[in-house]
Design goal:
The complex is a heterodimer. By secondary structure, chain A is an all-alpha fold. Chain A has 6 helices and no strands. Helices cover 70% and strands 0% of the residues of chain B. The chains are: A mainly alpha, B mainly alpha.
């Protein structure tokens, strides 16, 4: 196994781990806020579930990038490519946008979701507005996902 | 016990805020007869199941339920307990009067303090104070030294602020430090107005003044002696709200209105922290709104009697 392949594996691992942590935190605080509201207003469960779930997408994006790196480096076939050190660093760098932005945007989206859940508790009819406001944070996670996907698929010759 | 998280507590508070009496309902309550007002309250679920014939019992039950809920959901009871200390102080004063007069004061006690009301009564009657908040113990141990019930009552009020000071010294909270400093200032200004209305001298006023405010202590006696309240009392960190209330007081001369205005100004200070879902602000703000609601309902029903 080459140093390049090890660097690519570390990159893929970070892409899966960091957004996963962020999403777990975001969904956790969203769940706590939703549980507080539902303990008094059980009828709002359906509306709040969507808001709680929104910060979970970054974890899925990070997982996607990790799988793409594994596909591109041949890890899934059982015969991984002998990547050079430069190629390894390139894969590592390609994973960073999703790893870093995924972590931070999931935490921020979790906080936005908490605020939206609290708003919905007071004004149940404004849940759609809350979902829209919370979803806007997603934009930056999607941009980071696109950058990582393009770099992994097109930017690095293997 | 697992600690309650802030998002959970504030989520529950946001749901409960829908039960606060809104402006429209206040208008209807003011316009209604006593019987209709009680019915209106019962219709919106106010009173926590208390008898619908007795608005005071409904208000009391609702207050006790609110305090119970706050104690149950508070992420940091150390902060919310500070707002329940006045209930302890009320129970302590009632229990002490009961001991002096050898009367059963159980019906005067209210639940929802940091110490169960019955435990407070038994502790005071038995002279065993180890279960009570630390700041109350020296007051009770030296109770015989106070010349009057007023002096004892003032000492209990000072003990509340001493307990607040001890807690805020150990654990910083800028929002609550500011709130309690304002409360000390507002209470002292109100005491000065009351002292002037009752013809008290500076010595008697000094008994009821609280520490922890931002107005120098000597300004209260100077204000009382001169009758120039605005000149001497519009000082410190909360000069602007004090000036607003004193201007209204100069017009109306109503101590009840001044007390209500000071309460509004205090709640306005707490509202600075109301929108932070990861702080104690929304929890204590809700508690204070419910306490104010109960006080205003009592005034409303007293006027309808």
């Amino acid at each position: 196994m080459t140093l390049g392949l090890i660097l690519a594996i570390i990159g893929a691992a970070l892409a899966a781990i960091l957004p996963g942590i962020g999403s777990a935190y975001g969904v956790q605080i969203g769940g706590q806020a939703a549980a507080g509201v539902v303990s008094e207003k059980p009828e709002l469960f359906g509306k709040l579930l969507v808001l709680q779930a929104l910060p979970g997408t970054q974890g899925i994006y990070g997982f996607l990038i990790a799988v793409l790196v594994m596909v591109r480096t041949g890890m899934l076939t059982g015969a991984p490519a002998a990547l050079s050190t430069q190629q390894g660093w390139a894969f590592f760098a390609a994973c960073l946008p999703m790893a870093v932005v995924g972590l931070l945007s999931a935490i921020s989206q979790g906080k936005a979701a908490v605020a939206a859940i609290h708003m919905t508790a007071k004004q149940p009819d404004s849940s759609a507005k809350g979902i829209t406001m919370t979803a806007l944070v997603e934009t930056y996670a999607i941009l980071a996902l696109l950058v990582s996907v393009l770099m992994v698929f097109i930017g690095i010759p293997v | 016990m697992e600690k309650v998280s802030y998002p959970f507590a504030v989520g529950r508070i946001r749901a409960l805020e829908g039960r606060l009496i809104d402006a429209g309902r206040w208008t209807r309550l003011r316009e209604a007869s006593r019987g209709d007002a009680v019915r209106l309250l019962a219709e919106i679920g106010y009173g926590n199941g208390a008898s619908r014939d007795d608005p005071d019992a409904m208000i009391r039950a609702e207050q006790e339920e609110t305090r119970r809920v706050i104690a149950e959901l508070s992420p940091e009871p150390v902060w919310t307990d500070l707002f329940l200390l006045p209930t302890d102080a009320h129970n302590l004063k009632a229990a002490y009067k009961g001991r002096l007069l050898k009367q059963d004061v159980s019906r005067l006690l209210v639940d929802g303090g940091t110490v169960p009301a019955e435990l407070m009564r038994v502790s005071v009657e038995a002279g065993e104070y180890s279960m009570l908040p630390a700041a109350f113990r020296p007051v009770l141990e030296n109770a015989e030294r106070y010349e009057s019930l007023l002096a004892f009552s003032a000492a209990v009020d000072r003990a509340v602020f001493e307990q607040v000071r001890l807690v805020l010294k150990k654990k910083k909270n800028p929002l609550l430090s500011r709130y309690f400093a304002a409360q000390a200032d507002f209470t002292n200004v109100l005491s000065t107005l009351r002292a002037a209305a009752l013809g008290w001298d500076s010595e008697k006023l000094s008994i009821v003044l609280l520490a922890g405010g931002t107005i120098p202590a000597e300004d209260f006696s100077a204000a009382l002696a001169s009758g120039q309240f605005a000149s001497f009392l519009c000082k410190g960190e909360f000069a602007a709200p004090i000036r607003r209330v004193l201007e209204d007081y100069a017009q109306s001369g109503s101590l009840t209105d001044a007390e209500r205005r000071f309460t509004e100004e205090r709640i306005a200070l707490l509202k600075d922290g109301q929108d932070d879902p990861f702080s104690i602000g929304p929890v204590v703000c809700y508690l204070m709104q419910r306490e104010t609601e109960a006080r205003e309902l009592r005034v409303l029903f007293a006027r309808k009697s």
